[in-house]
């Protein structure tokens, strides 16, 4: 099992699969040939991945019909939001060094991907993890391959729902999250500690992400960035398989394995071009979602969400899935469970702020739980996760 970096545009799409047949095999072969047609260089990674260096102007994003005449924006034209003064603090309120400061120092190190040990993609190209034939054959259909299953939004009738008791758990999903509402958000940011959770079955996954959401619970749009682990070691639309996301970096391959350390991730909005950017580390722009893809999240988001999610067809059933969330431990600062730190929001000001009003929530507290530590420290830390199946979650 391994953890991979992903980005996700979610437009709440439903698809239907089919059975394996000669027709599907031919369809898979055509798809693979099509995806590799613009590869200028191939890198074989020690973990078994193959990375194709593809001409940036011929990347999969432009297969989307709305982007035929799109001109690539290489860097954000506007990213004036600066870290607020509290973000630089390395001490708690009692004057002693805080764990928050240590974690932030750790997060500033450059996260690496395994394939980078074997080579580099030249300028003018992007790094794309090659999909294997066996991965596509496992999917119910080519269109469904790797799509993250629809989750829920805490918005109802266009308004943000703050009543946690009214949350309805979606079938086959379990979330443990922290979220904030009340502004029109232009970005969200956090450091995500990368874990390697156990995933029980091929069709299950466990993710940790920063997300921006807008729209009612049954018709919403969402952009996400984070890491994922799945049983079949595939990423699908967690990467560039589905057209739409425009990648600009030749250093990061979405869907490829990452070292198990913290990822500083950011989802800033560019008001001059209406692009939603994905930033990684302190300086790297991975790429962006162009405005042609959106209807309701065009200019801002209604909420920002941080946390984990598990997908399994045995969630809410007995026996429950044993797929873990985070590092598989319940939320606790004492047990070194999974943590999300340096959580920031970008509202209409030019400052990245610590969110003032936040709400924590878990679908299944006996399986995966949450805990926000905010007292006596300058920078709140959000702990989440769990083992899935256990004596309290049979």
From TrEMBL:
Database matches in InterPro entries: Glutamic_endopeptidase, Neprosin, Neprosin_propep
Keywords attached to this entry: Signal
Domain Neprosin PEP catalytic: 167-394
Residue numbers spanned by region Disordered: 73-105
Domain of life the protein comes from: Eukaryota
Skewed-composition ranges (Polar residues): 86-105
Matching PROSITE patterns: NEPROSIN_PEP_CD
Signal peptide: 1-17
UniProt-recorded name of the protein: Neprosin PEP catalytic domain-containing protein
